[in-house]
Amino acid sequence: MDYIKDYKLIEEQDGYTLIVYLSEFGVEFAKEFDHMSKEKKDEARSNLLRFIDEKFPGLKINLCKVMIGSMLVGSVILAGGQVPTVKAAEAKASNTNYTVKSGDSLWKISKRFGTTVNAIKSLNNLSGNTIYPNQVLKVPGGNVITYTVKSGDSLYKIAKNYGTSISQLKSSNNLKGDAIYPEQTLYISQSQGTPAPAPTPAPSPSTPTSTYTVQSGDNLWNIAQKYGISINELKNLNNLSSNTIYPGQKLKVTGTVTETNPSVTYSNYTVKSGDTLWSISIDHGIPANELAEANGVSAESYFSVGQVIKIPVHHIPVKSTPGPQYGEYLDWWKEAQYLFKTNDTAKVTDLVTGRSFTVKRTTGANHADCEPLTSSDSSVAYDIWGGYSWETRAVTVEEGGRKIAASMSFMPHDVQYIEDNNFDGHFDIHFLNSTRHKDGEIDPLHQEKVKEAAGY
Question: Of 3.30.420.40, 3.10.350.10, 3.30.360.10, 1.20.1290.10, which CATH number belongs to 263-315?
Fold first, then answer.
């Protein structure tokens, strides 16, 4: 059925509901449905059933809803093999009235509704890009559906069900954090979504199990990831009807833990002529005070040529992510600073635009102080931020085969090491729990973007 644009599955108590979204060709199909002969209608229903059999063999689907955008065209009841006549509604592409909210821009609204800035401006006779809160705009519709949040929902669960991302959901709905509440209405752009996969069957009863005690901060997703199973498997294994768990609760799990905690071992290094505690720490990617502490000396101490000292070697296990576009959610003090070391170069990718550039970490202890590697890298970053700016943006930092969740601003300040990159100073990249240099405090705006870059 080439007029089916998209589809999704919704798990019900005794099976699934399938929702199919018609393409532009399907709009004409819907208009003509009431005027079709019985033979044509039967043929259309047979094609729909064939589509279901091919895509979801063996899956119990009780109801199929046919949609055009957010408009219900008709329903087909599949339980018991009864397929009644579908009543088609008159359908046509229409415009949506949208009330501008604080923080909106034409670009954000266009992304939310899967259209373009020029299309919105043309439809509303706008000569510029200025809009204001409570202004009512006409927006080309048909590409956005609304979703009413239910108890137990999360942005991750909704994004996964609709084949989109958490950051896209937040951008489409002007969400600053991850909090949502029952009965809240969310906009979901179908131009973003891809079909949701069929749920994973529950594990066999004969599968060996062990017990896991829920810790503070745990959720079903991170426990499932830790043991290499799906959320549905974990819920079925423990007869859970919702995603709510609590610290101290005992859960049955299968498999083995795939993530471990960071660990430290030590290697030996023989001091050479010209070495200092600082230069040795830089060469080995560890803070100078950590090197001093490992050898029982102060940070102002000197080593002797030929002296054998201990070098801390940090082992940082790989953490899973909700999707390939996200970075590992790594603590700066225990993990990230040992992967993105001073003098390392890394690929930085902006989460929203997908554009990348190369940076070098030149200094910084509380967070990474970085500089664009070349003038070309400066130009790309300048274009992403729209100029020099303290605005925080969610980014990933790739170095040594690892991709780390981070937050970056692009305002040149203070010391500079690279002279020919068309950037006078350095900028800041923050990671989980990193702090500001000026007061040693965590920056909430950066932490929010780090979390977004991790897909949470």
Answer: 3.10.350.10
For the segment 146-177, what is each residue's pLDDT rounded down to a tens digit?
A: 778 877 777 777 877 776 777 777 777 777 77
pTM of the predicted model, to two decimals? 0.48
SS3 assignment for the chain: CCCEEEEEEEEECCEEEEEEEECHHHHHHHHHHHHCCHHHHHHHHHHHHHHHHHHCCCCCEEEEEEEECCEEEEEEECHHHCCCCCCCCCCCCCEEEEECCCCCCHHHHHHHCCCCHHHHHHHCCCCCCCCCCCCEEEEECCCEEEEECCCCCCHHHHHHHHCCCHHHHHHHCCCCCCCCCCCCEEEEECCCCCCCCCCCCCCCCCCCEEEEECCCCCCHHHHHHHHCCCHHHHHHHCCCCCCCCCCCCEEEEECCCCCCCCEEEEEEEECCCCCCHHHHHHHCCCCHHHHHHHCCCCCCCCCCCCCEEEEEEEECCCCCCCCCCCCECCEHHHHHHHHCCCCCEEEEEECCCCCEEEEEEEECCCCEEEEECCHHHHHHHHHHHCCCEEEEEEEEEEECCEEEEEEEEECCECCCCCCCCCCCCEEEEECECCECCCCCCECHHHHHHHHHHCCC
